[in-house]
Amino acid sequence: MAVVEQKKQAAPKRKRKESAFVVVKTALTAWLSRPLASFHLVLALTGVLTVIGAVMVLSASSVTSYDPKTGSGVYALFSRHMIFVALGAVTFWIGLRIKLERIRQMSATLTLVCLFLLVLVLIPGIGSLVNGSRGWFKLGFFSFQPVEAAKVALAFWGAHILVIKYNVIHQWRHLMVPVVPVALLMFALVMLEPDLGATVTLAVVLFGLMWFAGAPKRLFAVITAGGLAGVMVLAIIAPYRLARVLSFLSPDADTSGEGFQANQAKLALADGGLFGKGLGQGASNWGYLPNVQNDFIFALIGEELGFIGCVVVLALFAGVAVVGLRIATRNLDPWIRIVSGTLTVFLVAQAAINIGYVVGLLPVTGVTLPLISYGGTSLVITMLIMGILANAARHEPEAVAALRTQGPGKFGRLLRLPAPDPYRPPVRKGTAGRGTGKAARPAPRTARPSPAQERRRSVREPARRSSAARTTATRGARGTANRRGHR
Fold first, then answer.
1. Which of 22, 128, 170, 414 suits 297 as a labelling partner, its CA being 20 to 30 A distant?
2. How far, rounded to the nearest angstrom, does the alpha carbon of residue 138 sit from its chain's CA centroid?
3. 322: in domain
4. Which domain holds residue 387?
5. Which tens digits make up the pLDDT trace of 382-412?
6. Which residues pair with 138 in a beta bridge?
7. Residue 162 exposure: Cα atoms within 13 Å on the Cβ side
8. Would 272 be classed as within a structural domain?
């Protein structure tokens, strides 16, 4: 009897839990089905990640910024970071407000400008040498890394070319040329700096372009094999890169040399525990982990905010992945679909590479954590990318209909955003004669029936009409008889 009573008491609790879950699921589904849900999610994710980054940069740089000899205060690096955040907010607004069709029209020019800057930065006296890489332009306290802009330009232009060649993309020469040669040229220029981390992220952009354009799967096996072989060769021919790989393979062999940063990052993560030591209380701030505000800020998050803080950051980047791919799948414009998917994969892959080498799963490559690491060109360009993703979210068919019928909404009025134009597929003109692709082939003519088929059809049609008429008359007579019977 006691067991039966316990089961009866547990049943209402189970029902209450199930009902609460159903209510939450229904509310979440209803909110996600709203026309501007993707747009609001991009705004929220950008704001939360930027705020977390500002707080962690303040905690990481307050000690290293202070220098009584130069008069630098504890807020020196944080102030510069906030300047870059302000510049990033401007680029976010530009990316949100500019017409995407205009970006597509300018993509070839942007790619040529980026190639010119990648060549110009290699010239001694013009490009500055930072951490062994000549990849920076320095103008006073402001510095610019052209490879960050080149990644975005490659995504814009590559998507434009692949959309134009969509009907012939099944042919390898049209798929590869000219996107792959231009990408390889960028790889070569960046490796001359040298910067292996930027080269890897450029390869991620190329991979994303090919994937979302619908390239054959066997091509990705070739690209992956070639990329791994290239990374191995580049790692072997440079002594400092070889030392990084060897320290990754045997991290305890040289804990005070090449493996110092990686080991200190693991110790910081271990010291944090579940809830962390608290903001500003980490030992990494005091020089125990060099470059903590840039490449290894995730280790400081684990030390000061604990495992919970790390999970929150991982969940936010997972949200970026889900929302970005949602935007890509819900749009009708193929160029927006490819660009949204490629930029999303690029951001999430960059975050995965950074977190991977902080926790010891990958060799150290010097890739920053998007929106969280100390600002600069990477922060400004990342906020531009998030602005473009928000712009793409406003071009979803439901969002376009809502914005054009119900008005711009609160954010639209506040940011002075124009109403997006609905997607209109390009009209393909039929061409006679020879063609290189499917679009140039003439439409197949419908086969004309033979005289015998026409005679059989002319015989069948009167018979069908007469049988149909007899059936209708029979039904009418039955209906009349039934009505009389009821009377």
1. 128
2. 29
3. yes
4. 35-415
5. 999 999 999 999 999 999 999 999 888 888 8
6. 143
7. 30
8. yes
